[in-house]
């Protein structure tokens, strides 16, 4: 046991009446929602990076947090792992996620970095034997080190491509060894700072090659996890190629990978791309590529990614509604790609950021499930399109052509009268489940 | 001759020294740029709607313009056509563009609307016999009338789908009859106001069916014009399906239409989608779907589409650079989807809005051509990726896999050193052509 | 009785368990909150313009609503008034608000417009004798007619200034006659479309003169209502002078009007200005100029004013918390400057838009009151600044100077250690009241 | 001489025909513009922080630059100063600007930090004896160290207020000693991350006290430099108090400091606040508080401060036009608060970023001067308001009241006819000077 969380108890469910800050009021892992345990619906994951590697910096200021494990070397990395698993235990977290750089010291060479990672993975594996916490996904940090400044797979320098491929293999190996459920690629440097020095065609081909190699390696290893791309439109790059769900889908189609790769959708990234979170989820569901979510919000007044814990039940409810409509998570889950604010210095803040978020998600899930089970919203939606089920209309959609349809409009004097979209009534309905 | 432009002379090229407001200082149609006449490069088009149908309204105010052709009925429509062709003549405009609703009165029935359009098309055809102005593209207005409030092709009501298909056929017929070079679809109502009442899957299938019918009709008619989609992310709808170039590309790929349809890209729409204009152009060029452009800017401080005439040479230059790199326009051109401000009440304003824009475009084109012919920018770009042409690297891109690449990184101790992206030097270079 | 709402019952409170769409589940006018009737806290007002004058248009489409009172002439205006007061009655609305243009036909001359208004005001006065609904505020529409296209008080044309002043007098007279509680000025055209033709100094002086005349007229008439400015940063103008609360405050100070005028703050306008609604409210409270609110939201993905009914309890709660902290409304209230979506065609939509909003506000008010009464949030806030109450620190704030403070820092070796801002804990606390 | 810039020559003016990257093509210090040397108009300053202290980091990546002076200790600080003055010499920079933290190592105590600063100031003073480069402004970094995470003057902890005051005194002393022309305050942490833990009233009073002490100290020291506030709406804080020019003006008026303090306006900050740069400049000019400028642009597609060197002549021209209209700089100047991109690794990039920017500014200044001297724009502006100069209208503005004006409108039948705002014509005019 480290000292870091020494005065903080394990968090348990005490119900809505509890005034205990260190308790769940809404997240009850065992409670059944639509016949499934809440824990199995939500599949919460703690992000190793924000929780243990983030030092409190921002573009105008440095480290604010004071953590005993900050610093170089394997000993610090081991202490960090100890604290991490203590927190997983305090939170009863079913999952965690990590990048290689979060968990191991950077080596002087690729070989050393690889060995460092392997050593930590062994430690994780041992800890996981006595922990309930599993790995939701692993990923490679291909954006922090200066070698990646102009991209990883899309770098103009083939050596960076090679270095990135080698790193991804290490991280996939780690994910497979730890029985991870998914492997994620986030392309923060796959994009450009200026079009003036960029060849879009080359870089797209490079990105596709890298992704194809990832898919091939998955199959070669006989691993049944899911490969996920996490879209984000910008930041750190001025423009990023995996802009949003629709863009990623077009990329997958272009290179024939649409049945091999799904998306990990983050609320904050949806917002930066000019969408609502529920839009991105609904679109991915419609396209059959909804994989997993990063349930962290942006501040609506900030033009950058703030990665805050969710705190709006009504927004979270709409998100889980789309997840439930898509059939719920299979390999995916609810990762908190969230960091406490840089002024939240205390160990309690780190715990309570997660506790509040888990409770918000539980409330949102229950409201979403109630709305789906009640069926009124889906009935209203279906009713709106009901005329398309009439044989003549289904036939028009199947076999119509402009000329014959125009003939019919002329002959029948079709002059459609609009009908109310009933937005306010539906919004009232949604609020009735909250 | 109408009285409207009675004191305004035909605009001719007088060169940069001229102080005549009513002259081109930079746009010289006959001047050769990269061996092609400037007029044939730029292929300017006047938008009928903004120039003759827009009344000066905005969301908080009504008509400000006082035009003798405003009002109902065919006589007004004929006067509008007279004025339009007078303006085309004053500007020596090589092209114009129109929606059905811009040019003909709405009928009480579809049949009447169709007849009205046909009558106007006959008038246009006659005028075009003695005019140099040709049709760049036609299109259907499927967004103004209340019947389209919930979409045209994507409407929940199949009768609206049918009415839209019939309307598109009329407009394609008009375009073909007038020897238009392209036919455009802009989906301002193809999207949603609220996800709560929307079925994304159904609506995508409906949109694809409509587009397929358009493509089929083109082929059936043996017409060799180009079908273009104009992307826009939002406005009027909260979310529009043709969000940006990448989204449209994904849609085309999803339904196998990527070889049949290109894009008409507008600067203002690029901005609303979070992109630069040159990004959208470069991406479309890279994807092989760059068709035509709407060269009108947004105000960077306004969160809606302002459709202003272009006035920044440096921005326009970067746009034409991408057009030239993609081989220049074939069927496409430079449409001004621009309106004078609602306070610009005078006939002179309408003329001078176009004159200024044409001069800005001419300056931009010449600078872009100089930059392309000089070759320094393309050399710098190519040099940045030069290592990919080495056989070992080309081979890696062709046949590499993660495991063998990792082996090579380990064996060779690959540890890439980053190189400068030289952004400021390239920006200085660009400015040297202005 | 008109036929318009003929099948819609009066809305009454039925409590949270009710499944009746046409009932309040949370808004119970008589319920005491912090010792005051809920109705007296919230002071709801219906906006005449959005409810009865808005035709469903947007920048790309025309009228969608089909209302028997649309059209010209006093008879239509009377029918509109009948329907309006029927709706006030259905909703038990304590207040309404109007512009002159909403309620009377525009005359051919100022004199005729004035007479039309006076006639309608007489009708209103008569209706109000048998209605519970009072006037929250009146205002002049100085933005729709083309004469105001370049501003009203800030117009370059002194005749428009005069016309505007005359109009404001009419509207103040109407407000006073109807015992309105406030008079509002919203400057949608007080700003500019381009700096190139604008004289900021002149226009500020003109605006100040107009406002001073309004204040003088209030005093001259012995009226005890409140003069309110409604800030908005842009739209319709590219830049508006009453950008946000801080800007309005600076303007009032510049011209010595800060004790005469307060602000009417709208959520959507706060968002457009880059603020949260609660920021604008808290700032106005801190500056002593919080007057009234327009409780309508913007869509976070739309860059323009969407004027939608509120539907987020958590946002509304934070707004009322600032109102309650500032002592609650005195002359002000909660106006819904909201319109149903243009696809919401039915009379039911108009009623239910208001019902849902009133319920959301009631939930928000109760949560805000609970939080304020509980006191935990205010205790945490006070505790954070507690060291400033120590005499030495209070003295430093009162009489300190740089040199003596530096001496003390050197002498005492002051080296402050930061303390947690506890944001996540406070956010969890806030959510516990919802 | 250090080795850093060893192959880079001094930059001299070679004229527009030069193809030498390392020459000015437009910035000719001696050239007269409106009768004043270009150097004396522009008063360029190099920012010490971006040029020498920025390491290439961003929120997702660390140091990319490889500079021999990076690291701790006074020796590194001395080497940094050597390189800095070498660059000033290469660029013939008339001015530089610095924060304490840019130039000296942070000490373990305030006393040590103070001594370190004094030692560096002595070095600077010595270097300046043989350099043409003077100090445009000094400032204190009150945002990077964790002690300032919750504000400096506005901190809830009085000890941080004291520490900040002590630091400001040190920096003012340094500025005075080096004969700086101005002293700047930028409040990156003077704002809040969450309203929930913030007391706006207290924090405003604290900020005003700090500013008052700065003004008092200036007078006490008999220093005739200018105190400047640099507005910025957000970043790093979610909300910053010095939001924009209008907000700063209101703050100054509130505390009676409007005659003591001016503003330093940055293009990027104007953009983040929803304004154009020229708006902020024109407004400050109108309010009499235009002090100095930070001439660095934001990327229009990035929602954060990118601090890039200017590269648009047309934008820069509009900025200098406002500066010239306000009478030009007195103590202020043109600071480049700009950093080369993190991929611009080479010493050449650092030099050429400045060279390009200086040339862009020179082109903009010359175009602005031509436009001002020509007078057509100002004539058009004046003509638009000319009717206000008529005695009756001047009288109305001076002594009018609502009632008498309404009488006149009725009597005279005033019914104003709008006139064209001529925006496109004016935009064409502006472009004719480029
Ligand atoms: Co994120
Ligand atoms: Co994420
Ligand atoms: Co547009
Ligand atoms: Co367009
Ligand atoms: Co509004
Ligand atoms: Co309002
Ligand atoms: Co900046
Ligand atoms: Co700055």
TrEMBL record, chains A, B, C, D:
May I have one GO cellular component term? Answer: cytoplasm
Q: Would the keyword Coiled coil be found if you checked this record's keyword annotation?
A: no
Write out the annotated subcellular location.
Cytoplasm
| GO annotation terms (biological process) | D-xylose metabolic process
Which reactions does this protein catalyse?
Answer: alpha-D-xylose = alpha-D-xylulofuranose
**PANTHER family in the record:** PTHR48408, XYLOSE ISOMERASE (PTHR48408:SF1)
Report the protein name in the record: Xylose isomerase
* Chain's gene name: xylA
């Amino acid at each position: 046991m480290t000292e870091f969380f020494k005065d903080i108890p394990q968090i348990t469910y005490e119900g809505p009446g509890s005034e205990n800050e260190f308790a769940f009021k809404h997240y009850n892992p065992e409670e059944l929602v639509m016949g499934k345990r809440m824990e199995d619906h939500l599949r919460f994951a703690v992000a190793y990076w924000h929780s243990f590697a983030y030092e409190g910096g921002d573009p105008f200021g440095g480290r604010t947090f004071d953590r005993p494990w900050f610093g170089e070397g394997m000993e610090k990395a081991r202490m960090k792992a100890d604290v991490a698993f203590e927190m997983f235990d305090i939170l009863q977290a079913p999952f965690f996620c990590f990048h290689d750089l979060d968990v191991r010291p950077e080596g002087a060479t690729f070989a050393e970095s690889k060995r460092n990672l392997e050593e930590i993975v062994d430690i994780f594996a041992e800890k996981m034997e006595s922990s309930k916490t599993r790995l939701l996904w692993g990923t490679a940090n291909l954006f922090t080190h200066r070698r990646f400044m102009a991209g990883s797979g899309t770098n103009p320098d083939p050596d960076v491509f090679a270095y990135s491929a080698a790193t991804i293999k290490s991280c996939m190996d780690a994910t497979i060894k730890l029985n991870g459920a998914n492997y994620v690629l986030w392309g923060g440097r796959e994009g450009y700072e200026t079009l003036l020095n960029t060849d879009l065609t080359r870089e797209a081909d490079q990105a596709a090659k890298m992704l194809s190699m990832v898919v091939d390696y998955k199959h070669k290893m006989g691993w049944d996890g899911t490969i996920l791309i996490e879209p984000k439109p910008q930041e750190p790059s001025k423009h990023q190629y995996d802009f949003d769900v629709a863009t990623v889908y077009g990329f997958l189609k272009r290179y024939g990978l649409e049945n091999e790769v799904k998306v990990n959708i983050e609320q904050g990234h949806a917002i930066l791309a000019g969408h609502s979170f529920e839009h991105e989820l609904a679109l991915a569901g419609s396209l059959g590529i909804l994989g997993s979510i990063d349930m962290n919000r942006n501040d609506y007044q900030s033009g950058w990614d703030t990665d805050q814990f969710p705190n709006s039940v009504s927004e979270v409810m709409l998100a889980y509604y789309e997840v439930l409509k898509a059939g719920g998570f299979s390999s995916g889950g609810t990762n908190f790609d969230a960091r406490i604010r840089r002024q939240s210095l205390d160990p309690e803040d780190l715990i309570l950021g997660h506790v509040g978020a888990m409770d918000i998600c539980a409330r949102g899930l229950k409201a979403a499930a109630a709305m789906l089970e009640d069926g009124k919203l889906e009935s209203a939606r279906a009713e709106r399109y009901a005329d398309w089920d009439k044989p003549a209309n289904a036939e028009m959609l199947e076999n119509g052509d402009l000329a014959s349809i125009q003939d019919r409009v002329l002959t029948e004097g079709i002059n459609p009268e609009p009908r109310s979209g009933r937005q306010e009534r539906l919004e009232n309905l949604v609020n009735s489940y909250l």
